[in-house]
Amino acid sequence: MLVSKVLNNNVIIADDPHYGEVVVIGKGIGFGRSEKDSIESEAAEKMFILRNRREQEQYKQLLPQVDENLIEVMNEAIQTIGTRIASPLNEHIHVALTDHIGFALKRTEKGITFQNPFLYETKEIYPEEYELAQYVVNLIEERLGVALGPDEVGFVALHIHSAITNRPITEVRGHSELIADLVDLIEENLEGGLNRSSLDYSRLLTHLRFAIERVCRGEEVRSTDRLAELLGREYPEMYSLAWKLTKVMEKRLGLPVYKAESSYLTVHLQRLAEKDNL
After folding, report:
1. How far apart are CA 68 and CA 277, in angstroms?
2. Mean of per-residue pLDDT scores for the chain
3. Do residues 270 and 186 lie in contact, with contact meaning Cβ atoms separated by under 8 Å?
4. 1-65 adopts what CATH topology?
5. Secondary structure of residue 30 in the 3-state scheme
6. Does the keyword Iron-sulfur feature in the UniProt annotation (predicted)?
C-alpha cells in the first residue's frame, strides 16, 4: 500500500492495490510517514482497513472530533473484540463505538451521566457482549484514566452486539427497550413483582429476546389450538397477560406475532407467578 494522506499518528489513508483507497488504523502507523511512502504487508496485518467507502468518509469526519489517544485505545479494543468472537465485526463499529465513547468521555468530564434503564436486562440477554463491553470500559479507565461507570458498559454492549449481528444500533437499542417495557408490564401484573435475580427471570428474558428475533425473521412457532385452549383455561390470568405482551410486540415491531408465542409466554409467566406465591 502507498500512503495517500496522514490523518494523525494512528490513522492514514492509503492506496491499496486490491481495494483502492482505504483508511488504515494502527498504533503509530502515521508517525513519520509522508505521501507515497509504502507500507509493508506484514505491518498491514496488525491494522484495521475500512474498505467500505461510506464508513471511510464517516470515520474521516469523526477523527478531528476525538482525542488521538482514544483512537489508539479503540483500535486495540476492537481488535481484541474481533479475536474473541466467532463472526466478523461490521466495520461500522469503528465509527459508531468510537463516536459513542468519545461523547461519553466528554459527558463524564462535565459531570453528566446517563442512567441505563435496561442495564440488568442487557447483561442477562447479551452476556458475551456485556463481558466484552466491560473489557472496553476497563481498558479506557486504565489507558485514559476515566471511569465511565457500569451504566456505560450496557450501552457499549449494545454497540458490540450491533456489530456482531450486522443490525443497526437503533434496532438493537429498540429491542432492548422493548424487552424492558415488557418486563415492566409483567411486573405490574404479577402480585409481589419479579425476583430479578432468579433463574426463572433469566429464562424469561432469554425467551423474550428470541421471541422478538423470531418475529423479526418471520419465523413461525407452531403449537396446537388444544394447547392454547388448555393454557387459557388452566391459567387465564397469565394467558391474558401473555396475549397483552404479544400485542405490545406487534405494535412496537410493526410485525405479526404468531399465536403460539402467547402459549409459550404463558408457561414462563405461570412459573414466575407460582414462585412468587411460594
Report:
1. 56
2. 87
3. no
4. Transcription Regulation, Sacy; Chain A (2.30.24)
5. coil
6. no
